[in-house]
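Troubleshooting log. The previous run stalled partway through. Resubmitting the same two chains, unchanged.
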Amino acid sequence: MNGIQTQAFIQHKFAEYYNQNSGNIEPPTSIGTREFAFSLFRQKTMLRHKGFQDARGFQEFLKRLSPGDVYYSSAYYESPEEEMLRKGWLGADLIFDIDADHIPTACDKSHDIWICKDCNSAGHAARPEKCPQCGGQKFSVISWPCDVCLESAKREVMKLIEILEEDFGFSKQELILAFSGHRGYHVQVEAESIKTLDSMARREIADYLAGTGLEPTLHGVNTKTCVGPNLEDVGWKGRIAKGTYELLASQEELEKAGLKKVSAAIGSQGKVVQDRWRKKGPWGLVVGVGAEGWENIVQGAVAMQSVKIDTVVTADVHRLIRLANTIHRETGLRKVQILPSGIEQFDPFRSAIAFNQGFVTVDIVEAPEFRIEDTSYGPFKNQRVELPTAAAMFLLCKGAAHTTEDSATVQ
Amino acid sequence: MAKYPFAPQAAQRVQELDHRTTELESQEYAKILQRAEQRIDEAIKTKQVTLPLSFDDETELLSFPIAMMMVISSNDKSLKRTYALAEAKRAYTLLKQENRTKLVAIGHLFNWKIRPVEVYTKNLGSGALGLSLDFANYLKNSTIFHESKWKLVNRNMLSGEVFVTADEAARLLAEEVRVNIEKKLDLEMDIGLPLTLVSKVEKLRQLYTELRKLQEEEMPKEVVVESFPPCINRLYNTAIAQQHLSHIERFTLTSFLLNSGMSIEKIVECFRPTSDFSEKMTRYQVEHIAGGKGSRTKYKPPMCSTLRTHRLCPGSDKTCENIYGPLGYYKARLRTRPQETSEKIRA
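Second attempt completed without errors. Output:
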């Protein structure tokens, strides 16, 4: 079957989902002040500037439209249906986006495929700066969410929540946490205190989390005299101390942070140095590590402790975000809300499945190994395979497979 | 109240005065009017309203709302900003002499969540008396400051409270004062000042316009590449070396070049060598940033803080210390550049 029929099949499945589930899709708080936006099948532009007064009207609309993606504004507007300049901005939630794309991961994104737009040559792993064949700089990328990527993103979410609670004083009730439906997580703060913060203020919050612009001297670090904050200090002081303490004892971490010289100088003395921290107080001279070495260690410590958020998203006071329980067009997975206490156990390839009935036969062009619930599938290359609908939809939505003559009938 | 005439309690008096603007010409108001006029005059000439020795409290208090009415009726946005800043500077001089209890009380006037605290960092052996301030109050008033010590990431923060010294609290309060005064001045209202006052306002406005003309340097007709700040220099060189620029890098470079007076033609030319160059698209984007397409907003380049966040700041040099954005840097360097040796690009 061709691409158009594949699209029609995906659209049909999405329509089925919204027909059965739209009654359970909760609209955001303050629905009357939010802008809604939808991406549609067979149309390149988004349907934007929609407004709804109540949940029912919204859910009915969703059922009729069966969109590819559903978004709403993090912002609150006087008139959400007006064009941007006339909407009348009233405030916005604070949004954090953690995406595996922004995190160096152990899988090295070896499952991703890049294709050079100039010469069509392709390769695995994250997109290169320049095409090794023709030097071109424009690529199309097929990115795959994998367990390793999502686990790294989850670690970042846990760091984020800790800082939001401890440093910023937000309560668990104020934090809305969700799997994005693709390669990451969203954390949203709905609190009166932050609603009217402008973009500059939000950027400062983003910088705080990312450790951008941090000056160790302002946190009491003196690399010449080897003096600095202690493990139990609050905020970034404590984090600098913790990061430094951890780095000192791990040659592996030091090397990962690019500190080969420091690692060689400390050698196997790391544990001894840590022992001295605990007994005689932190910092102090370490033979072979000079001021520059310490500066590098502290820099590595900050990088380790910082949260890899997409700073552009946090600073944006007009951002559109995907609505929970709607489907991600690129994966066929749902965006799912998670309780902060449940993040550690959360399994996106189990909890985010939208299509759990029946089997579909598909022609797979190319796909790396992936997992749905307890079963691993693939890798595949140029194969016709019958798969459970969730796995088939995942490949179809990713553009890695096509439907066959049998697809529509095998339900 | 005379010290802080912008406080809500003092505003009560403004209400009373509103009903009596016709009486402003009477003899009993002469001294108050004199001080009101002086407040604006000082703002224009020295950018700071003084702490007067020669006026009584009543005059000091009542002259503030009258000066406010006069500035509002000038309809000059820039004068309004200058006046708000000058009053905030006056407030800062007074605020920094206050003890923590008084600072807390003044903070409460602006609905701040603020309390006195003592912070002791054991390992560093440093203890300090200061104040704890809600981070949202802190951010609303600190993002305008440039020094690194004001960045949230460089502060002590716990449970949503930021630790500040008494002097820092005074500075943040002064900023709150500035914003509040500016907001009040921006209100459009028909004040109906007596004629003698109208002519005084007109004279002050003229004085302001003349002084500003003297201070304003014109942008040179040609773009001086060697006065570019390090961030723009890097982007400019990347563009002409045929290398890829991200969306925000392109936006920063284009908006900077437009604001420094380079023509749209010349900018499109700068982007020509890149491998993904599409003249039509580039021209559209440049024209959009110039305010000619779409929203009709003429964009300014991002400020230093934004560039740092997006990791576009390659590290600052000495000139960077006193400026807030790439254009400020450019203007500062133009003032001190040697005239003959400049590499110029015709705009």
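Takeaways: The beta strands of chain B are 114-121, 126-134, 157-158, 161-164, 222-224, 344-346. Residues 30 and 184 of chain B are 25 Å apart (CA to CA).
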